[in-house]
Amino acid sequence: MLLREMTENDLPQVLELQRELAFQDWNEKQFLSEIRASYAYCVVCEDEAKLLGYAIFHLLGPDSELLSIATRASEQRKGIGSQLLKAGLDKLTENGDQCFLEVRDGNAKARAFYEKHGFKLYSVRKKYYSDGEDAALYKFCR
Ligand SMILES: CC(C)(COP(=O)(O)OP(=O)(O)OC[C@H]1O[C@@H](n2cnc3c(N)ncnc32)[C@H](O)[C@@H]1OP(=O)(O)O)[C@@H](O)C(=O)NCCC(=O)NCCS
């Protein structure tokens, strides 16, 4: 398994993974603008050229943010998400010491994942999502 920065060539597999999990609906243009943004850190995990997961961070000094993280359904619970998350959190020492994220209130799996990695519930944004679900805002401090 290899961790490396995301490139434009990864986008077909990134979009496929996103469709498979149906957890967000970014289009190719949105992923492209992340890859090209100087403040974004876009990382993938792959195995023999098959993309297993990805994460996108904004490294913005004290207010860094995890925008998106996902592991292919068949590969979950094998430590891939943890490796992707750690790769971004390791960058915080260079760019600041806090990382924020938003997650759907009902996404128990992701919330357990973030809590295991030291994220603490910071606040709740009521009816944040278009379907009326609340967002839980988490904060990580190094
Ligand atoms: C959240 C997600 C990225 C975790 O990826 P992963 O590769 O499965 O994560 P890991 O294998 O590194 O899991 C690490 C820990 O997270 C927690 N965790 C992960 N999946 C869990 C689950 N289904 N139930 C409870 N805890 C879970 C556990 O503490 C786990 O450690 P353990 O396996 O030793 O118990 C993955 O579930 C995913 O892609 N979900 C769909 C997309 C999504 O919701 N992204 C987040 C949107 S904000």
Summary tags:
single chain; Aminopeptidase; seven-stranded mixed beta sheet; binds coenzyme A; transferase; AcTrfase_RimI/Ard1; cytoplasm; [Ribosomal protein bS18]-alanine N-acetyltransferase; YpeA/RimI_acetyltransf
- The ordered string of helix (H) and strand (E) elements is EHHEEEHHEHEE
- CATH superfamily (homologous) name: Gcn5-related N-acetyltransferase (GNAT)
**Poorly predicted parts:** none
How much of the sequence lies in strands comes to: 25-35%
Strand order of the main beta sheet, please? 1-2-3-4-5-7-6
Largest sheet: 7 strands, mixed
Small-molecule binders: coenzyme A
Pfam family, one: Acetyltransf_1
InterPro entries: AcTrfase_RimI/Ard1 (IPR006464), Acyl_CoA_acyltransferase (IPR016181), GNAT_dom (IPR000182), YpeA/RimI_acetyltransf (IPR050680)
Subcellular location: Cytoplasm
GO molecular function: protein-N-terminal-alanine acetyltransferase activity
Q: How is this structure best described in words?
A:
InterPro entries: AcTrfase_RimI/Ard1, Acyl_CoA_acyltransferase, GNAT_dom, YpeA/RimI_acetyltransf. Residues 1-142 form the N-acetyltransferase domain. Belongs to the acetyltransferase family. RimI subfamily. This protein is of the alpha+beta class and 142 residues long. It is built from 5 helices and 7 strands, in the order βααβββααβαββ. It has a single domain (2-141), classed as Aminopeptidase, CATH 3.40.630.30. The model has no long low-confidence stretch (mean pLDDT 95). The chain has helices at 11-21, 28-36, 80-89, 92-95, 108-116, and strands at residues 2-5, 40-47, 50-58, 64-71, 98-104, 120-125, 135-141. Strands 1-2-3-4-5-7-6 form a 7-stranded mixed sheet, sandwiched between helices. A hairpin with a 2-residue loop joins β2 and β3 (50-58). The chain is globular. 24% of the residues are buried. Bound molecules: coenzyme A. Coenzyme A (COA) is lined by residues 21, 23, 69-71, 76-82, 103, 107, 109-110, 112-113, 116.
